[in-house]
Sequence to fold (122 residues):
Amino acid sequence: MDWLTIVLAVLGSTVVAALVSGAVSWRSHSTALAQQRMTENTRLMAELIAVAHARDPHGSRAIGRSEMIGAAEMLAAIGREYAPLKETARSFLGAQRDSFAPGRSSEEPILFAAFDSALKRL
Fold:
């Protein structure tokens, strides 16, 4: 065997090892990013659910109707864009809509309409 054959064999195996290592590293990094995204979206959804229930997730102030409506819209948007949380958003928006249904809640018919609208767009 001459030196050129040995050098080419070493370089070839090094390139293959680098490609395999890069692929494994990329897959691992992608999985970590997906988990981080799921965690962040879940945390955001929990905070939005609290706001839609008229509770400040940080406990510092009262929540108004417009904030509740905004939270409903944002929950629908998260559910549309992020499939793993779609059913959670649908369940919550449906339950909130039903809690403000005519005959169940004499106050806040606007909230019924807002939750109903957000649910339909989900």
Remarks:
- The mean pLDDT is 84.
- The chain has four helices and no strands.
- The first helix runs from residue 3 to 52.
